């Protein structure tokens, strides 16, 4: 393959996966990100294989790969936006919340159509999929995490305080071996966390449909009367979420 020359400007991220660098391609002047993977040869990494399959407007595009990979450089992340809003003690304008969350819904719907589970949805990148998307949605509205927790148990208690106690059926769906697990009985209070003055009814409705314990089973926004009871507490599919009235302004 052809040789590509690039100039590393600075490191912009790091973690257990490796490091990400802000880079300029010498031949074109294009600004990209290079992700350097700390690959253990004993472990198969499917990331490159998956990235080669993805072609979607709301998902970072893989341009080249060799021992590491080059991606389009994104100068600002949702996490950075949230931090800026928090420092200024202001809330993100609702239109920006709609734009960010709508694009995430479309991107997740595309990934799901290919049988790919992202597994790491968070403000820094852009738990599991729709639930995590709901958490990001809430953080954009609040300019702070909805479920701050210092441990697994603390995290669970914070979730229950806001979403309420899962029913026996929901516990069984999560893990059939632990249906007799005792949890404090708490009523949902999501509406109290997001009063109408700061969160329109459509946003609260969408948030409630995302932050439910039961995962989606191709749930429609308008289930038939016979199915309504069965699906009312099930989490939305990403593309069903993208069709929610909250995003009507974008269409």
UniProtKB/TrEMBL annotation:
<dbReference type="GO" id="GO:0005524">
    <property type="term" value="F:ATP binding"/>
</dbReference>
<dbReference type="InterPro" id="IPR017441">
    <property type="entry name" value="Protein_kinase_ATP_BS"/>
</dbReference>
<feature type="domain" description="Protein kinase">
    <location>
        <begin position="6"/>
        <end position="251"/>
    </location>
</feature>
<keyword id="KW-0067">ATP-binding</keyword>
<dbReference type="InterPro" id="IPR050591">
    <property type="entry name" value="GSK-3"/>
</dbReference>
<protein>
    <recommendedName>
        <fullName>Protein kinase domain-containing protein</fullName>
    </recommendedName>
</protein>
<feature type="binding site">
    <location>
        <position position="36"/>
    </location>
    <ligand>
        <name>ATP</name>
    </ligand>
</feature>
<keyword id="KW-0723">Serine/threonine-protein kinase</keyword>
<dbReference type="GO" id="GO:0005737">
    <property type="term" value="C:cytoplasm"/>
</dbReference>
<keyword id="KW-0547">Nucleotide-binding</keyword>
<dbReference type="Pfam" id="PF00069">
    <property type="entry name" value="Pkinase"/>
</dbReference>
<dbReference type="GO" id="GO:0005634">
    <property type="term" value="C:nucleus"/>
</dbReference>
<keyword id="KW-0808">Transferase</keyword>
<dbReference type="GO" id="GO:0007165">
    <property type="term" value="P:signal transduction"/>
</dbReference>
<keyword id="KW-0418">Kinase</keyword>
<comment type="similarity">
    <text>Belongs to the protein kinase superfamily. CMGC Ser/Thr protein kinase family. GSK-3 subfamily.</text>
</comment>
<dbReference type="InterPro" id="IPR000719">
    <property type="entry name" value="Prot_kinase_dom"/>
</dbReference>
<dbReference type="GO" id="GO:0030154">
    <property type="term" value="P:cell differentiation"/>
</dbReference>
<dbReference type="InterPro" id="IPR011009">
    <property type="entry name" value="Kinase-like_dom_sf"/>
</dbReference>
<dbReference type="GO" id="GO:0004674">
    <property type="term" value="F:protein serine/threonine kinase activity"/>
</dbReference>
């Amino acid at each position: 393959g052809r040789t590509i020359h690039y100039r590393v400007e600075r490191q912009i991220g790091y973690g257990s996966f490796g490091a990400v660098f802000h880079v300029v391609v010498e031949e074109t002047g294009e600004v990209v990100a290079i992700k350097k993977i700390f690959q253990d040869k004993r472990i198969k990494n499917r990331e490159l294989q998956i990235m080669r399959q993805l072609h979607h407007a709301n998902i970072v595009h893989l341009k080249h790969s060799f021992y590491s990979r080059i991606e389009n450089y994104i100068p600002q992340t949702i996490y950075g936006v949230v931090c800026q809003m928090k420092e200024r003690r202001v809330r993100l304008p609702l239109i920006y919340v709609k734009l960010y969350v709508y694009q995430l819904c479309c991107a997740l719907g595309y990934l799901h159509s290919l049988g790919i589970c992202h597994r790491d949805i968070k403000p820094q990148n852009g738990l599991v999929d729709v639930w995590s998307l709901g958490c990001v949605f809430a953080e954009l509205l609040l300019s702070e995490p909805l479920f701050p927790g210092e441990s697994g148990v603390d995290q669970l208690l914070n979730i229950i305080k806001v979403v309420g106690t899962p029913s026996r059926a929901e516990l069984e769906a999560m893990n059939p071996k632990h249906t007799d697990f005792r949890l404090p009985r708490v009523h949902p209070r999501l509406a109290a966390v997001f009063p109408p003055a700061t969160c329109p009814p459509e946003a609260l409705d969408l948030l409630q449909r995302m932050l439910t314990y039961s995962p989606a089973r191709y749930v429609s926004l308008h289930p038939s009367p016979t199915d309504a009871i069965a699906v009312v507490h099930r989490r939305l599919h990403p593309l069903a979420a993208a069709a929610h009235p909250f995003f009507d302004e974008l269409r």
